[in-house]
């Protein structure tokens, strides 16, 4: 692979684009498979099978053997992008928004407020694109680099992760107290949600109705921030930088629109962000550290969101408060940490013992769903992420990405948690104000349209 990836290799891409109809298969707005570039090595097919989706196949018809997709109605892409990490020739890759964002920033006018927000795991991996070893935390240098790209405001998806935790922990506490549907499953991974909606719709009542972090924070900017700063939400453009190809698809879902406005406008992966920085000759490693703008404040609970088990640990830290009214003193849940694809534990929350499970990859989720169907009382709370190691191993992360690299990125997030003064989502002052001074004063329906979501069975290609 070239250190500068496809968007900059425009002569090749232009010739492909002319024949896009026959040459490219697009998986919604997330990934694309370029038949011309494919060398038929089967790496992507094997990865798709390994994680338990099995959407790809070899096409042996015609002159050239190449990877292709299955046309059968019982198989569909979940957009996780694990295939893109394996392709040696960039034939299966994210659908690039590098040029779209570059033009947007170059033509920025005073009328528009363009906001950048970076996901928890991007800060621990983007350095790899600039020669650093995995797990170097570039948070504050990246804020400066994003300013140099031309953004008006630098916020952080970690703030959105605190909103997600708050919403999800309240829901978990309510389900436990009021006898709601348990076990509750997390739903912040859009590839897991697509998997559940397509392959296991029977499990949907178990998914938390909390939106995902970048959708939550995007919605908060276009409601709460817009209200406080007297900005027309139509003039706010939100750009997410994520480790994930599925989040490109997620951001296009109309169910998230608030009064007809999408919370997030543009989504780039970690690799695309690196491409844009290289194109503009901005090296974040050389930047002076700077601070996030006011609405980007976050807790340690948000910092660990990018690691498998992190979402559960964040929610448990806050659920304890919502269940008991007391702050948890020993708030590290070591039992749910680590790289294992399946972790099971019993944790104490107040005077309750909760049975929890944390899994990555659809193949493990499928086994757990079967276990829940056979024994509905076995668990209270389950975290599912599609990618190995969680989002630090996401399909949009720097290449190569293997378990030891992913583990270094993962550890960097726990180190960041240890360094922060606020460790629980419900203690984040911006999030507290968002809920107590803004959301709680809105009619229930309007509040729900900003922080909750719903799920439905999906057919192939939906
Ligand atoms: Fe995206 Fe994270 Fe889910 Fe992977 S685990 S598909 S990176 S949200």
Radius of gyration: 21 Å
Q: Which cofactors or ions or other ligands sit in this model?
A: iron/sulfur cluster
Mean pLDDT: 94
Largest sheet: number of strands, sense, barrel closure: 4 strands, parallel
- Strand percent estimate: 5-15%
- Report the span from N to C terminus: 32 Å
Which of globular, elongated, flat, extended, rod-shaped describes the shape? globular
Alpha plus pi helix count: 16
Low-pLDDT parts are: 1-21
Spatial order of the strands forming the largest sheet: 7-6-9-10
The succession of helices and strands, N to C, reads HHEEHEEEHEHEHEHHEHEHHHEEHEHHH
Q: Share of helix among residues?
A: 25-40%
Class based on secondary structure composition and strand pairing: alpha/beta
**How many DSSP E strands?**
13
């Amino acid at each position: 692979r070239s250190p500068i990836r496809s968007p900059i290799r425009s002569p090749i891409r232009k010739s492909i684009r002319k024949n896009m109809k026959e040459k490219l298969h697009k998986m919604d707005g997330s990934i694309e498979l370029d038949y011309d570039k494919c060398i038929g090595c089967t790496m992507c097919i094997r990865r798709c099978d390994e994680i338990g989706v099995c959407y790809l196949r070899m096409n042996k018809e015609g002159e050239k053997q190449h990877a292709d997709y299955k046309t059968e109605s019982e198989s569909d892409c979940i957009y996780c992008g694990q295939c893109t990490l394996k392709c040696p020739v960039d034939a299966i890759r994210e659908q690039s928004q590098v040029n779209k964002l570059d033009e947007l920033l170059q033509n920025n006018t005073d009328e528009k407020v363009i906001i950048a927000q970076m996901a928890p795991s991007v800060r621990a991996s983007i350095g790899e694109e600039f020669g650093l070893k995995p797990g170097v935390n570039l948070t504050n240098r990246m804020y400066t680099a994003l300013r140099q790209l031309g953004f008006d405001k630098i916020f952080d998806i970690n703030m959105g992760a605190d909103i997600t935790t708050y919403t999800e922990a309240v829901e978990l506490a309510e389900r436990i107290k009021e006898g709601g549907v348990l076990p509750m499953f997390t739903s912040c991974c859009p590839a897991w949600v697509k998997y559940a909606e397509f392959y296991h719709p029977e499990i949907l009542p178990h998914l938390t109705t909390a939106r995902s972090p970048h959708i939550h924070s995007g919605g908060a900017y276009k409601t709460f921030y817009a209200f406080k700063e007297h900005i027309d939400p139509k003039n706010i453009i939100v750009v997410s930088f994520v480790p994930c190809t599925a989040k490109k698809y997620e951001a296009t879902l109309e169910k998230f629109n608030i009064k007809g406005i999408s919370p997030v406008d543009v989504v780039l992966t970690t690799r695309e962000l690196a491409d844009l920085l290289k194109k503009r000759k901005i090296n974040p490693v050389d930047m002076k550290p700077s601070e996030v703008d006011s609405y980007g404040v976050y807790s340690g609970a948000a910092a660990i969101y990018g690691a498998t088990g992190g979402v559960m640990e964040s929610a448990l830290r806050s659920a304890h408060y919502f269940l008991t009214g007391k702050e948890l003193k020993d708030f590290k849940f070591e039992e749910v940490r680590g790289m294992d694809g399946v972790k099971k534990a019993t944790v104490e929350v107040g005077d309750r013992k909760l049975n929890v499970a944390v899994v990555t990859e659809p193949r493990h989720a499928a086994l757990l769903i079967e276990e829940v169907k056979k024994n509905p009382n076995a668990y209270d709370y389950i975290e599912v992420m599609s990618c190995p190691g969680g989002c630090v191993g996401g399909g949009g992360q720097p290449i190569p990405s293997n378990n030891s690299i992913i583990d270094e990125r993962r550890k960097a997030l726990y180190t960041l948690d240890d360094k922060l003064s606020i460790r629980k989502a419900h203690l984040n002052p911006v999030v507290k104000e968002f809920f107590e001074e803004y959301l709680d004063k809105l009619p229930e329906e309007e509040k729900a349209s900003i922080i909750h979501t719903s799920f439905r069975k999906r057919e192939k290609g939906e």
